[in-house]
UniProtKB/TrEMBL annotation:
UniProt entry keywords in alphabetical sequence: Hydrolase
GO molecular function annotations of the record: serine-type endopeptidase activity
Peptidase S9 prolyl oligopeptidase catalytic domain location: 414-627
Gene Ontology BP term (one): proteolysis
Family matches, as PANTHER family: DIPEPTIDYL PEPTIDASE FAMILY MEMBER 6, SERINE PEPTIDASE S9 FAMILY MEMBER
InterPro entries to which the protein is assigned, alphabetical: 6-blade_b-propeller_TolB-like, AB_hydrolase_fold, Peptidase_S9_cat
Protein name per the record: Putative Peptidase S9, prolyl oligopeptidase
Upper classification of the organism: Bacteria, Pseudomonadati, Verrucomicrobiota, Methylacidiphilae, Methylacidiphilales
Superkingdom to which the source organism belongs: Bacteria
Keyword Hydrolase among UniProt keywords: yes
UniProt xrefs under SUPFAM superfamilies: alpha/beta-Hydrolases, DPP6 N-terminal domain-like
Organism, as annotated: Methylacidiphilum fumariolicum (strain SolV)
Pfam families assigned: Peptidase_S9
Amino acid sequence: MKPLRVLSLIFPFFLTSPLLFGTDSSLIPLPVLFSEPEAAAPKISPDGEKLAYLYPENRVRNVRVRFLGQKNELTITHLEKRGIRHFFWHPDSNSIFYLEDQKGNENFHLFEVGLDGKNPTDLTPFENAKVQVIAVEPSNKKFMLLALNTRNPKYFDVYKLIFATKKLELLEENPGNIIDWVADHNFEIRATQALMPNGIGAVNVRETVRSPWKPLLQWQLEEDNVKIVDFSPDNKSLWLLSSKKANTTRLISMAIESTQRKVLYEDPRYDVAGIVENPKTYALEAVAIIKDKTQWQFFDPQMEEYFAYLKTIHSGTIEIISRNYEDTVWTIRFSSDMDPGTYYLFYPKKMKAEFLFHTNSRLLAYQLAPVKPIAFRARDNLLIEGYLTLPRENTKNLPFVLYVHGGPWTRDYWEFSPVVQFLANRGYGVLQFNFRGSTGYGKDFYNAGNKQWGKKMLDDILDAKKWVIEQQYANPHKVAIMGFSYGGYATLAALAFYPDEFACGIDAMGPSNLFTLFNSFPPYWEPLKILIKKRLGDPQTDSEYFTSSSPLFAADRIKAPLLIGQGENDVRVKKMESDQIVEALRKKGQTVEYLVFQNQGHDFLNPANRLQFFEAVEVFLNKYLGK
């Protein structure tokens, strides 16, 4: 597993599935929508004989193992507070690795547990440190490569974890500017991505681990986007996602010795989103582009045949979750706007698929709302794409929610969202939209959001509201704004800077003060601050912009009712961000409901907290938006 190259796929891709058109049009109980999945993320062992997947023991996600061809199963982890989100097989197929943090602090440790579930071992037992997995593959049963910030909390060094002894060996020290270490297929670190103090990004390479480093590619951080994907199968070239000399991010190959560049795939409007590689040969097999929905470009005719067959099994988008080393058995996820996940085993050589399980079979009984891709023009004529969801029983003059995505440097997808389905099921229209600064639409669109928090990015939100009203979907007097993280910030900004626009707002983990946000980032974000200054801004040189874009300094203008949810242990948007605006609002007698969740970080991974929050959202919207 090399997480930075195996993009097959890092994003969930979705198409329509007919399986979840139930007949029950009644209200869907919140536990049905927001409890942990019944089963998820099945991963085949490297030897192809076992299956591991996430299973809700103790009401949180734990790892369960099934021996294929046998009936016996065993849950091998027993977490109780926060469930597991990331796990993977040992190359010898006899144990499982998983990542776990403490109460949402994001200082993940790497654990190993045998298939008997006894005596899990913390392999990185370092206080206030975080582990990242660089490379672990079935081809190497001796060690894996990790990045750890134990030497200096700001920087990640490279370590070898030797399986037999469980000992760590330091291989490379971070000079202070490297944000990505990449190993070749021989498990040698031969590429890095760095951010330079002068605002230059750089990919550096070396011929061997004994050779000196040399620059392969450099770019201006405020202009271009570059990310290392992987080494070519022969280790002589590097595959990159790059927007240099183009608007969209292209998949390119650059020879390490000659620096000769070749474009492997590009789209004129949309960025390359992910690739599929062969698990044994590392050959490029397919490339994904996410437009309103996902499209594929196949490089291997056999892979195209496999996808054609799988589409006869299920009409949803195909996502390859895992493949064994010999490539004889895969785990496949099908999903759609109304299907959170249907999983199959697939035997490619036999062209045979076997049903495994649904992520949430309880939803099969209910009628869900279809999600429709839409587009509109912002006031400066920039094309904004998004997704419209309307209740099945009514489509006009609705109480409406603008659901603003987090990041902001990410995007919304055409996918199943429990939040969206919850809102539509309660009679609200929902609009998700990719405002300027969102990813996936080329660098011009991405860069249009630079230093535009509370400015043009907020204009896009107001233009989205105008669009749903003009289309007669929304009741002009009953439009709410809601979001998590950046979406929470956008909620606060909209209510503060345009106090008459929205009937109410819901903010979860949203920053209120750009100064305190910037100065409270985790220490290991230090190398990223060079890039953040280009995108968000610099509190020293952009102080006027930071002041005018911080909702806290305009809190006295907020008059719409507000609900705020905050994780006590959030390290990205610290609790002070919510505390300070709640204090300011309560001093002026403004209506604000404030929920602080224990054992919670920048997320709602604790299912009890998640359920409690959406119970509060339901009551809040019914009170202030109504139907």
